[in-house]
Amino acid sequence: MKADVMVIGAGSVGLAAGYQLARQGARVVLLDEGAPPHALGSHHGSTRLIRYAYGEGARYVPLLLRARRLWQELEAESGESLLLPCGVLNLGRDDSPFIRQVAASAREYGLALEQVERNEIARRWPTWRLPVGQAGAFEPEAGVLYCERALLAWRRLAERAGARLLEHSAVRALRIDSEGRVIAKTGQGELGADRALICAGQHSARLLAGLGLTLPLTRVRKTFAWYRADEQAMGPGRFPGFSADLAEGIYYGFPTLDGAGFKLGRHDGGQPLAPGEPLVPFGAFEEDRAELDAVVQAYLPQVGSFIEGKACHYIRTPDEDFILDRHPEHEQLFFASACSGHGFKFAGVLGELFAHWMLDGDPGFDLAPFRLTRFG
Hints:
The protein is of the alpha+beta class. It has helices at 12-23, 61-78, 97-109, 118-124, 147-160, 204-209, 231-234, 287-299, 347-360; strands at residues 5-8, 28-31, 47-50, 83-84, 88-93, 114-117, 134-139, 143-146, 164-166, 171-176, 182-186, 189-193, 195-198, 218-227, 241-246, 249-254, 262-266, 271-273, 306-316, 323-326, 333-337.
């Protein structure tokens, strides 16, 4: 088939980009190693948080504000419920750099944010048992995204707009032919396109290395789990999502949704993985459950018994900021990589900006903080 744009990796950013490209009239082919949505990348586990007063830096806020609008538009077009604005509580010590940056991001962009002291947290959300010195910043407009549901919506809408998704088509190598087209080698043969977006997770560094670029990425195994919880005490409206900088590490969690229980995960830590190394299941390491149980017992004693756990992976950069760029020599090659475990909430806007960049020549945002050249 003839294609204007090839998208390598049909995860969250890939499917969002495929949808945006196809709806703008481009002939699009998407290649993926599995059948999206699947559990081979960083896009499964039912839910993700979306926050706007961003503790990771105010440079992300313009992207987040556009992302919020795009999530609402995706809900309207797909007819799916994807965004639940149940609020998010950011927790940390009074002097936490993360909490200070949350407040700074909110001030700079006029975002709704409530500073809440430890006693006020205990009154409003009595499930929490926080030690002296902890404080919070509550975002009432933040909330929860349904991740696999969103991937299915993007896939359905992209295919309806004419995009073609080739499942089980892992890309082995890339080259540029004599006409300047991007050629992808797969187990089923070769495919070409005028331009390509590489957003293939753990495979991105290998593919770009074959074209002369080095991406400083690491792969880390991560875990998360569900626990039984009283929906009257911990359902939406009673218990917000949270991101917590605790003595034990950085943790995140969700209200109990759809009878699934309370979900908890750890953002830092994890086990290093080589690209292509099998992702062993939850429970393969003693700390998989122990580090989650310890936080439940210390801070959320009303939470009930363990239900189940799952494993995923993060692809990280050294500074944990994204890489959003194009090849300096082959300008028909674009890449989005290493969202470092906090990228899903941005998927819609990243898909849109890459579609604009590839078709119109302008991403519409200042991407200087996310260029590969920052690593020298």
